[in-house]
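Co-fold these.
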Amino acid sequence: QVQLMESGPGLVQPSETLSLTCTVSGFSLTSYNVHWVRQPPGKGLEWMGVMWSGGSTDYNSALKSRLSISRDTSKNQVFLKMNSLQSEDTTTYYCATGPYNWFAYWGQGTLVTVSS
Amino acid sequence: DIRMTQSPASLSASLGETVNIECLASEDIYSDLAWYQQKPGKSPQLLIYNANSLQNGVPSRFSGSGSGTQYSLKINSLQSEDVATYFCQQYNNYPRTFGGGTKLELK
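Predicted complex below.
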């Protein structure tokens, strides 16, 4: 079955770069698009960007200058890198996917805290 | 960006009651709308897609309706396991955008 699992450092220093990995199973990265979505504690959801099945990317313009999404199809992994982290980037980060335009499958999320 | 305005922000209802949650898009999204349920400490789960199609495995007491800019999620005969926060999301355009959420509690 389709599964996604986010992994990352948990704690990042202010102004540093965040690196997260979404490891997927049950589908091919060349078939489904994989999105990144984040959610501050107790707040709403923000779409960050997408790795298209064809290998290109799109980003939320609000984050575009700091964000990079890439993948390794041989390892079934999608990567997120975001630089210049600040306290407002303390959120839970999710990867999500599905065969259509809605997000039928989500990872369990990984909480990243930005603090010195 | 398409703005999604959800109402109410919070809602208290009794077991067995019918609940309605509204979602208003800032422009026509042509029924490209999904509803998600999120329980505390968990990731969102898809309930409804294409405004009114029930995701496999979701109880039939959940239903969606609407068109154009106005959409709603209805929960019939509220159960204790329905206590959660509900989000709408448009996928008509990028960036994908979500409503602010409706927190549903038991009265």
